[in-house]
Amino acid sequence: MSNNGSHIISHQNNKAAKAFLLLALSYLLLGLVFGLLGALQYIFPEFLKANLSFQKTRPLHVYLVITWIFTAAQAGIYYYLPTIAGRPLYWQKGVWLHFAMQSVISVVVVSEFFAGSFGGREYLEFPPVMGLFILLSWVPFAINFFATLKPKYKTAPVYIWMWSTGILFFFITLSESYLWLFDFFRNNMIRDITVQWKALGTMVGSWNMLVYGTGIYLMEQLSGDKKAAYSKLSFFFYFLSLTNLMFNWGHHTYIVPAAPWVRMVAYIISMTELLIFGNIILQYRKSVTTARKNYHLLPHRLLTFADIWVFITLILALIMSVPAWNYFTHGTHVTVAHSMGATIGINTMLLMASVFFILKKENALSFQQYRKWISSGIYITNGSLLIFWLSLLASAVVEIKGSISNEIFFYVMQKSLPYLRVFAYSGAFLFIGLGILIITSYKIAASKTQVKQKTLKRTFSFSPEQTVGVKDH
């Protein structure tokens, strides 16, 4: 193939990946809008109650944020695949088919929620038939991933294993989460709860595989250390994550009559995973040279904040893991704080690092022009997230005290109101911080590409001695 032909294919690959990236950012922006509305409805219950009640804003927020995580991970994988494999995507039209299907599905789901048409379960509140279409929309993605890479797993870097596992288990977990449609599960409460929360817990594990795999690939690119993705520690973390994915759901089912050791094992596994991943990021930060750190300052900074949130989330999770304490914390704002720390502090910081890494490679000059805005957005986001997180914990303490003293729920919520106000106001600043990152991303992506794409060269030999990826432009 001529150099010009390779350049055209490379441009098409990047154009498709950027389309997914912009779609992912749109999910995040809309998810933040409904999250902010939901937070305001905490302290002003009558706000938009007639037309857009909390019963609608919450599932809208949850669906859009979860879809942001999956779509941002897919955007990164679509962008990195040709570089890793040294060849264009196997099925270019399949990327656009995936994009079209996902866009249409999202419009339908959001419309269903606005219309008050529910029918699913927690986190999947949309009518069950939409689950089938979501599953089908992932087929082109899976085909492109495996057919483009043709991975030889004996010599593959750890992020290939993680991406492969995340894709495989998404199909398994989404299918499993709809077993409640069958009478055998729906007519038995214990069986229904166990399977449902097992499926959803494992689904979190599947997106963690995609996100953490992306994070490890980024660390490889930013540090220039190609051996880290083949290290024993990285593969130990992978197999620990796989164990977590399959077994850490046990702590969600406290009301199910099961042996206490099942929940304890589940917690221990999940805590160890966070500890190991935090250590991997820490080792990356120690190994990266000053020159590379300065060149990739903003993605590096996002990874640093992700590392901080890993340890904050780990501390809270350890507290929640004590069965006697979990009895009181389960169902309170402690759970929400843990979820927000993981979803925003860890997953979103890692994915935004991927977003800006891609945008910097595509539009280096435009990226440079917005560095101060991006830096401000990062600090506002993490500062407001910390206040947001602490206010949820403060509210949870009031709830726990009320539970112990058997107070009426109404009075407990009245006592929590000052902390919930802080929660809502800090949520507004969180919206501003992430909004800055999203808007600047749109602007950089919309600007004219400053750097010509290089001809693809095969770099995917799955060997730590050979270069994986390309040098920064």
What would you say about this model in short?
By secondary structure, this protein is mostly helical.
What labels would you give this structure?
single chain, 473 residues, mainly alpha, Cytochrome C Oxidase, Chain A, 17 helices, 77% helix, 0% strand, globular, disordered C terminus
Total tally of structural domains: 1
Using the coordinates above, name the CATH class: Mainly Alpha
Helix percent band: over 70%
Largest sheet: none
CATH topology annotation: Cytochrome C Oxidase, Chain A
What pattern of helices and strands is seen along the backbone? HHHHHHHHHHHHHHHHH
Number of discrete helical segments:
17
Tell the overall outline. Answer: globular
User: What is the CATH H-level superfamily?
Assistant: Cytochrome c oxidase-like, subunit I domain
**Percent in strands:** under 5%
User: Could you give the count of β-strands?
Assistant: 0
**Structural class, from secondary structure content?**
mainly alpha
Overall pLDDT level: 84
Low-confidence stretches: 1-9, 450-473
| Radius of gyration from CA coordinates | 22 Å
Q: Any guess at the CATH architecture?
A: Up-down Bundle
Helix and strand layout, with pairings?
Layout: H1 3-43, H2 54-85, H3 92-114, H4 129-137, H5 139-149, H6 158-176, H7 183-186, H8 189-223, H9 232-247, H10 260-287, H11 290-295, H12 297-320, H13 323-329, H14 333-362, H15 364-369, H16 371-404, H17 409-446
Helix pairs in contact: 1-2, 1-3, 1-17, 2-3, 2-5, 2-8, 2-14, 3-4, 3-5, 6-8, 6-9, 8-9, 8-10, 8-14, 9-10, 10-12, 12-14, 12-16, 14-16, 14-17, 16-17
